[in-house]
Amino acid sequence: MNTATPPGLRERKKQRTRDALIRAALELFTTRGYEQTTVDEIAAAVDVSQRTFFRYFAGKEEAALAAQQLAMDHFVEALCARPAQEPPLEAMRRAVQEGWDTLHEIVEAVVPIELYLRMYRVIESTPVLLAAYLRSSAEAEERIARLIARREGLDVDADPRPRVAVAVFGGVIRVTERLWSAGDDFSVEALRALTAAYLDQVGPALAENWRTP
Fold first, then answer.
1. pLDDT at 63
2. pLDDT in tens for each of the 213 residues of the chain?
3. Which of 72, 94, 119, 70 lies closest to 192 in space, CA to CA?
4. Other Cβ atoms within 10 Å of 198 Cβ, number
5. Distance CA 87, CA 182 (A)
6. For 196, phi and psi rounded to 5 degrees?
């Protein structure tokens, strides 16, 4: 039985303001460029003060990655819900597939999916933002490795397997994101197909001899 109380008016208003700031930031970043956009311009687009912006975000960088963080949190929730008998890599794969199936409804509660996807190209083409994204990804990988370790009943600091599995999975995701963002088909379906094709090769790439007779 769900006993959680719905958010009050004040909390809903704060969430609407935060969502509006994220959308305004992404629209400005994708049309004008990350470096060319100021915090004042983002705040003005929502008709709030700079001070209000900083109540929600530490800076432009955090606002720029907010939608990606939302998707990551959704993936972690899906991973937590996977059956305990699934091997770690299979559980992560199925969790990311579930994430794609519901990505539209999760992301579009805040920003249009097309805007979320376009932001990937801004991240890839902006060194300071790419560095922040990679740092955030590394932090997420450690979080997921600890989750996997608990799931498997392991000590993450004594057994290297959770971090190794997550590093492999994260590496595949990173490669496919980069290839997809540089390609011509800029859709969720294209990203899903590319990621699935690369994940299919994890076993052969790690265990088989690549040389042909």
1. 97
2. 444 556 688 888 999 999 999 999 999 999 999 999 999 999 999 999 999 999 999 999 999 999 999 989 999 999 999 998 999 999 999 998 888 888 778 888 899 989 998 999 999 999 999 999 999 999 999 999 999 999 999 999 999 999 999 999 999 999 998 999 888 888 888 888 998 899 888 888 776 776 666
3. 94
4. 16
5. 32
6. -60, -40
CA distance 71 to 107: 7
Short-list 68, 57, 28, 32, CA closest to 45: 28
What does the block give as tokens for 127? Answer: 């060194």
DSSP string across 40-109: HHHHHHHT--HHHHHHH-SSHHHHHTHHHHHHHHHHHHHHHTS-TTS-HHHHHHHHHHHHHHHHHHHHTT
* CB neighbour burial string for 171-186, b if at least 16 within 10 angstroms, e if fewer: ebbeebbeebbeeeee
> Do the beta carbons of residue 60 and residue 42 sit within 8 Å?
yes
**99 closest CA partner among 83, 120, 76:** 76
Count of CB atoms within 10 A of residue 3's CB? Answer: 4
* DSSP state for residue 111 in the 8-state scheme: S
pTM: 0.84
How crowded is residue 17: how many other Cβ atoms within 10 Å of its Cβ?
16
Amino acid at 83: P
